[in-house]
Amino acid sequence: MNCPWKPNVTVAALIERAGQFLMVEEETADGLRFNQPAGHLDEGESLIAACTREALEETAWGFTPTALIGIYQWPRPQRDITYLRFAFAGVLGEHDAHRALDTGIVRAVWMTPDEIHATQAHHRSPLIWQCVTDYLSGQRFPLEIIRHYE
């Protein structure tokens, strides 16, 4: 049975503190890879709530999105998947040192932009560096451009 094509909607958190970004190292089908705290939008969930949830689940850090950095489309032909990523900047919250990280997350790590750039060969996708570049250039859109209806 053929299913209609649809993109995989994901969210990503660009969490910056003192010139470093909170990243995750995770197990993937391609081996260990770096990513922003990111994940899939769940049914009925708003993009903003999904980003808050994913950041907490993958890093044990609270995160409140305050701006949209960009919307990114990445067709991945070798997997026959297209990702539609909504990347957010925001405010870092409290850390829960006792919280277990999501399955597959090896560690949460703070990295400088230079370290992120130097590890591009081990990024989960090309969107990671592009999101950092857009963030560093000051690109911000108000959250009000996103409408969620229940």
From TrEMBL:
Is Repeat tagged as a keyword? no
Q: Which cofactors, by name?
A: Mg(2+)
The record's listing under InterPro entries reads: NUDIX_hydrolase-like_dom_sf, NUDIX_hydrolase_dom, NudJ
The UniProt record lists the Nudix hydrolase domain at 4-132
- Enzyme class, top EC level, equals hydrolase
Q: Which CDD domains match?
A: NUDIX_Hydrolase
Question: Which keywords does this Swiss-Prot/TrEMBL entry list?
Answer: Hydrolase, Magnesium
Q: How does it assemble?
A: Monomer.
Instruction: State the similarity comment.
Output: Belongs to the Nudix hydrolase family. NudJ subfamily.
Q: What is this protein called?
A: Phosphatase NudJ
Originating species: Rugosibacter aromaticivorans
Provide the gene name from the record.
nudJ
